[in-house]
Amino acid sequence: MKSLRNTALGLALGVAAATTAVADGHAKELTIAIVNNGHMINMQKVAEAYTAETGVALNWVSLEEGVLREQVTSDTATGGGQYDIINIGMQEAPIWGAAGWIEPLNFGADYDVDDLLPAMRNGLSHEGTLYAAPFYGESSMVMYRKDLTDAAGVSIADNDSWDNVKAAAAAMHDPDNGVYGACLRGKPGWGDNMAFVTTVVNSFGGAWFDKDFHPTLESDEWKAAINFYVDLLGNYGPPGSEGNSFNEILALYNEGKCGMWIDATIAASFLEVENVAYAQSPNSGNPVGANWLWAWAMAVPAGSPNAAEATAFIEWATSKEYIQAVGNHADFGWSKVPTGTRASTYEISEFKAAAPFAAAEKAAIDSAAPAATDIKPYVGVQFAAIPEFPEVGTAVAQEIAAALSGAKSVDDALAAAQSAADAIMSEAGYY
């Protein structure tokens, strides 16, 4: 193979990349596992210019969130070598980096790593080393139809109480005309329903574990939060909510069927209805952890034979220049740029003009609180930054979905969740 060297990527990209032609003249190919969310799908189109300039072919494997996590975890943990670049997030990156499952990322000075929002950079690092680069970052917030709240004579304030949020959902709820007061995640998965549910639990003063890492799923706080969640969605949500996650609710919202949606701030980039307003996440007396913190990031599995080329692509895809490429792309524009990663994005006048959600998104990200507290004695907002959490979260997610569907009572679901979580944590040697 020819030696790699940094070179100007040219007018099409305007960012450094690496030449990766092999000796026989054929271009390298990178296989990239991505979550099937809008910004990732858009990247496939934008990256056509990268292939044209560098000759690096890109083989995209687009997977639903839960499937992606399962396949990427299995392949990376076993050194399967199926992927050159993987989508992972804040739960995995520091743990996998410490375990040597993914490569540290070292970029050129032009990348400006200090421009990355501190919450994103810190959450994707281990002991100061960046192991995954954020493609987009997010917190969570309320996205609601102001025309519907005005017509119903209700309002939703920043950090409103859950009781007021429920009242607003009830006032907007009009199923005979295809409008549901609240659309919220119900599909089981530690990053699906439990992402939202955990913020509700946090806001009610609960946590996943106590200081000794005993699960606390039958606490009064968990019972109050899950009963509230099941009641809210059961009375004012769309039918079949136990099957809905981000993409399903986005489709419902854009069809005009949701009065409000409390979910990832990044969703605002893809809302196509008018009269959308934004508010900071509600709480029930404890604002710490009421809005989550996450980044879908890009990492290189350890030992990849294409690590240099993969790193060069990640450097381009998470750069300031990539954001400019999306903003100036004929098919997308400034309202579609991936946000939540760089401070400089929020200073771009074209972006601020095209993105009425920008200030609310930035405020949510800046206020997210992943650090451990007396109530929540672990790092992470909607997850716990321990290796066992995905298994625990997945088991609990199934029980919460069962309660939401009516297959189990809340008390029975939480009892089963507690039993499953206890078994996992005990086997892992926590006690």
Sheet/helix structural class: alpha/beta
- Sheet-strand content, in percent, reads 5-15%
Report the major sheet: 5 strands, mixed
What is the number of beta strands?
Answer: 13
CATH class of the largest domain: Alpha Beta
Low-confidence stretches: 1-26
Count of discrete domains: 2
Query: Which fold name corresponds to the CATH topology of the largest domain?
Result: D-Maltodextrin-Binding Protein, domain 2
Shape from CA axes?
Answer: globular
What is the CATH superfamily of the largest domain? Periplasmic binding protein-like II
Question: What string gives the helices and strands in order?
Answer: EEEHHEHEHHEEEEHHEHHHEEEHHHHHH
Write structural notes for this entry.
There is one protein chain. The protein has about 425 residues and is α/β, with parallel strands linked by helices. It has 2 domains: about 5-140 and about 295-350, Periplasmic binding protein-like II (D-Maltodextrin-Binding Protein, domain 2), CATH 3.40.190; about 140-290 and about 370-425, Periplasmic binding protein-like II (D-Maltodextrin-Binding Protein, domain 2), CATH 3.40.190. It has helices at about 40-45, 50-55, 65-75, 95-100, 120-125, 145-150, 160-170, 195-205, 220-235, 245-255, 305-315, 320-325, 350-355, 360-365, 390-405, 410-425; strands at about 5-10, 15-20, 30-35, 55-65, 85-90, 125, 130, 135-140, 140-145, 180-185, 260-265, 275-280, 295-300. The strands form 4 sheets. The protein has a 5-stranded mixed sheet with strand order 4-3-5-13-8. A 4-stranded mixed sheet has the order 10-11-9-12, sandwiched between helices. A two-stranded antiparallel sheet has the order 1-2. The longest helix has 18 residues, at about 410-425.
